[in-house]
Specification:
Layout lengths: L13 H24 L3 H25 L8
Helix pairs in contact: 1-2
Length: 73
């Protein structure tokens, strides 16, 4: 039982690989600072920013568990 060869993807640049983790890190830091320093609307913004990594994890988990679009032969 052999697998069909997967199409080769070109290597990704370092910036492309780490763009999303850096953006999530920046959003988390901003959310923590807003949560510690603000009241009212900044607290809501802090909750939203701190929820982004959780949403990203859930989206990646759902994407991973989705059946593959490749044909099985």
């Amino acid at each position: 039982m052999s697998r069909a060869p997967s199409p080769k993807r070109p290597p990704q640049t370092l910036g492309r690989v780490f763009a999303l983790p850096i953006a999530l890190f920046a959003a988390s830091c901003a959310g923590l600072v807003l949560g510690l320093t603000g009241e009212g609307a900044p607290d809501l913004a802090a909750w939203a920013l701190l929820a982004l990594p959780i949403i990203a994890i859930l989206a990646a988990w759902q994407r991973r568990n989705r059946p593959s679009q490749q044909r099985k032969t």
